[in-house]
Amino acid sequence: MNAPEGKFLSRKSYRQRRIIDAAKLLPILGIILFFLPLLWGNSPQEAGDKQYTITVTEVAVFIFCVWLFLIFLTFTLGIKLKGIENNVKQYDKSNQSEDSDV
Amino acid sequence: MTSLNVLVTICLVYVAILFMVAFWAERAAASKSWLWIRSPFVYTLSLSVYCTGWTFFGAVGYAARSGLEYITIYLGPTLVMIGWWWGLRKLVRIGRSQRVTSIADLLSSRYGKSNLLAIAVTILCIISVTPYIALQLQSIALSLSVFVQIDDSVIQTQQSTALWAAIGLGAFTILFGTRTLDANERHHGVVMAVAVEAVVKLFALLAVGIFVVWGLSDGLTDILSRINTSKIGLWQINGGRWTSITLLAGAAIICLPRMFQMMVVENEDESHLRVAAWAFPLYLLLISLFVIPIAVVGLDYLPTGSNPDLFVLSLPLSEGQNGLAIFAFLGGFSAATSMVIVSAIALSIMVSNHLVMPVYLSWKAETAALISGDVRKLVLMSRRIAIFVILALGYFYYRLSGGGTALASIGLIAFAGIAQILPAVVGGLFWRGATKAGALAGLTIGFIIWVWTLLLPALGASGALTDEIIQNGPYGLIWLRPQALFGIVGMDSITHSVFWSLSLNSLIFIVISLVTFPTPIERLQGSQFANVFSRFIEPTSWTGSIAQSEDLMLMAQRILGSDQAQELFQREAKRQGSRDQLPQPTPGFIETLELELSGSVGTATAHAMVSQITGGSIISVEDLLAVADESAKILEYSNQLEEKSEELTVTANKLREANQKLTQLSTQKDAFLSQISHELRTPMTSIRTFSEIMRDDVFLNEVEKKRYAGIINDEAVRLTRLLDDLLDLSVLESGKVTLNSRECRLREIISQAVLTAQTGAHSEIEIFRVLENEAIIIQSDLDRLVQVFINLIVNARKYCDAMKPELLIRVHTLNNDIAIDFLDNGSGIPEAVRVAVFEKFTRVGNEKEQGAGLGLAICREIMARLGGDIRYLDGYLGGAFRVLLPKRFEL
After folding, report:
1. Residue spans in chain B of domains classed CATH 3.30.565.10
2. If interface means Cβ-Cβ distance under 8 Å, which residues of chain A face chain B?
3. Interface test with A, best of B43, B82, B285 (most A CBs within 10 A)
4. Which of B143-157, B617-631, B836-850 has the lowest mean pLDDT?
């Protein structure tokens, strides 16, 4: 369906803006995931209780998986951003004036 | 055991290969055969200068001591890289557009081209990085000593190794780092060599890792169970350290001089960043993949007490894998050398641009400094000397510290020191309100806290701080204890220092920025930095005369080299369309020149040099702003004048219009007077005639007398009515009429009007009404309204020429008005006179009927006063008038 002009962006530039949003949100996702293991921490008094302990390998595997996942996302977004980079000047400008224009 | 000589030979051959690579890359860059050098992967690999000897050897030692925590060193940079769209993209764009040469130059440029700030950052960098360089020398020496343990003179060997390594690295750095004074400060040879070394160190570590996992253990499952049963197998983490080290590592990848050099200054193409954003995290992932396995297997296999920092080497050696051990050694050597080379280049640029040149300039200030003596040579020489001094400092630091401390701790301390630059950088990039005073204050506070809480306690063993001070604070001030500032105890020393230094640094930076006022040039630079994507304003700050072109040319030659300078000047001359060799020193050109120069000697210095030449005729930004201010005032004044003249024109037009109106009125008045005289004269004449007859003719009988007196009386009545009407009209027109507003049903008013109009008439007119429609309450001056209605009905009665005159009074609502139509079945008013029907003294048709033609004029005036209207309706057969009344007319 075609949206009325002026009020909404065309499908293509809408998609581009969402890709830029994704690229901006990526580090936040990274921070959340990389800091997740802090919440699993074995407190010292529990350390003796073998039943509920988390091993370094589990955490390491988790972190490396997250790492690869983030690299993959950055790679994918990087390819998508390739075309956008040139148009981005415009976006940044309009972004400063108003955000409602989406 | 491999003999020392073989190892040294291998090192020399390796270095020789690096020389060749660097040389080839320089040649390729010079002949513009870019293909390889411009690859984004070379850029990515060159970023691996982040992974130093500390990473290579120290990460395993770190993991052996504290488990998975080592990984934070890589997570920080990963987060910064994957967030490239936010930060690094902007940083690189600014770096390229402002020709920034170092992190110190970046801050100096952002904060009003201030050299003071540049000096502060340079000193901070030297203090933080020197121990780091010492660390690399130590790692080379230590790793070499592993191979020659049987030798008695281990210490001596180590020391001499470190010395020779320092000398060799110095030579390489000078050769490839200070060959030219490139306008862009790019060193293709060095970048290529670093990229090659990146590959070597990655493969070396991977090789050792694969050997450990599949050679010494039985594959993945086995290594995982080994890790779980080892002493670091349990997941135990200090959240504060995890957070603060990730933060430090993230800051380091931006602020470390060598990282800034590789990432921003050596950046060939902004789009390379897009590839590096995923490729560099991948590199980091690979290089940290086998760290824990190596650490765990090392703890298993090697005798207790062996240095975990050297597991990478000692594991293959203890298993007799000499080839692998040598490869690992080369990997570590690569990591250490690339770090030292790039750091030395970055620091030497900072020292020459921000310490040596300003001193030289101020020393030569009185004489025409830049025309005498070759600045180019001076800059290069100062860089060479700086490289040697930096390496010498590193070496002496290594000798003094005795090389005992665990590698990783020095690395972290350096990171924490460098991270103090972060608030000023981030604030500078994103916040226009950040000021130089704020940056300087924040930096100073952060630096002092860092030195007090981290650097000095770390040097504690060598006696910089006594135990007494660490325990009880200086002069017994408990709250100033270096490791428990403000009485907060129990924090890990790194977390403690990072927390206090960075938070107070940021706080002071922000507060001082808020309360101080930036100079115009700071504001200009601030907006250029913060808005680098939305607009790129060329700052215009200079002006000069043609005579200065020659001086500028001389200076540019000394800094850029004569070929490059001449090319630049000729290009500009061509652009300006002048036939001379020298272009006009237009502000635009001088700005370009300053940018070019700042690529070689730094922003502040370039600014100072150009200002020395353009000397007397410089218009500073302050002056410019003053001029702008003045012209704004002039503009405003002229705007005011324009406004006033427009006003005058408007007034004149109004006057002209008024005059026209007056003339028209005067004409109207004349016409009115003549009309009036005419109207008055006709009855007057007949009155006079008949009264004269009655006076003079004595034979008049009674009947005649009575008839004449009747005529006189009729005429007098007509005169009175005319005068009444005139009076009425004049009152209405002058607006002095007082309206007496009341509420009443419309039906009653119409009935009253009909009654009055029909009374005493010779011929009646039949009137039709729709009574239901007339049940509307109106508010108006009822007497006046009745007057209008009567007038209309009487007119219909008088002028309707039908055989059987009929009048329809129709009431209906029209938008917001009530419309009362008076439609008769006569022949109506001829089209030609319809326009004039409401004018004074207009009479239509039947001349025998009395009347001065004022009735409709009065009706119109009344309706205007009542807020309504009266008009003639076209399109009906008979006469048709419509009275419009506003609903609920309020007075």
Report:
1. 738-886
2. 20, 23-24, 26-27, 30-31, 34-35, 37-38, 40-42, 44, 47, 53-60, 63-64, 67-68, 70-75, 78, 81-82, 85, 88-89, 92-93, 96
3. B82
4. B617-631
Q: Range(s) for CATH 1.10.287.130 in chain B?
A: 637-732
Q: Does residue B534 sit in helix, strand or coil?
A: coil
CB B739 within 8 A of CB B772: no
Asked: is B738-886 a CATH 1.10.10.10 domain? The reply is no
Question: Per the CB < 8 Å rule, is B236 touching A23?
Answer: no
Number of domains in chain A: 1
Record: contact B68-A44, CB cut-off 8 A: no
pTM summary value:
0.64
Residue A18 lies in a domain: no
* Cβ neighbour number for residue B647 with a 10 Å cutoff: 10
Higher pLDDT, B426 or B154: B426
Cβ separation A35–B83 shorter than 8 A: no
B contact set with A (CB within 8 A):
67-68, 71, 75, 78-83, 85-86, 224, 227-228, 232-237, 239, 242-243, 246, 271, 274-275, 277-278, 281-282, 285, 289, 292, 533-534
Domain of residue A73: give its range: 26-37+55-86
Q: Which long-range contacts (CB under 8 A, 24 or more apart) does B851-854 make?
A: B851/B798, B852/B679, B852/B721, B852/B722, B852/B725, B854/B722, B854/B725, B854/B726, B854/B729
Taking an 8 Å cut-off on Cβ atoms, the answer to whether B232 and A56 are in contact is yes
For residue A96, tell me if it sits in a domain. Answer: no
Q: How far is CA B553 from CA B156, B357, B365, B567, B601, in A?
A: 54, 19, 19, 11, 16
Is domain B4-25+39-428 classified as CATH 1.20.1730.10?
Answer: yes
Cα of first residue to Cα of last residue in chain B, in angstroms, is 118
**Cβ B533–A88 below 8 Å, yes or no?**
yes
Confidence of residue B43 (pLDDT cuts 50, 70, 90): confident
Please indicate, yes or no, if residue A93 is contained in any of the structural domains.
Answer: no
B99-112 average pLDDT score: 84
| Confidence (pLDDT) at B367 | 53
CATH of the domain spanning B637-732: 1.10.287.130
Q: For residue B292, which residues of chain A lie inside 8 Å, CB to CB?
A: 56, 60
Q: Are B542 and B460 in contact (CB under 8 A)?
A: no
CB contact under 8 A, A74 and B534: no
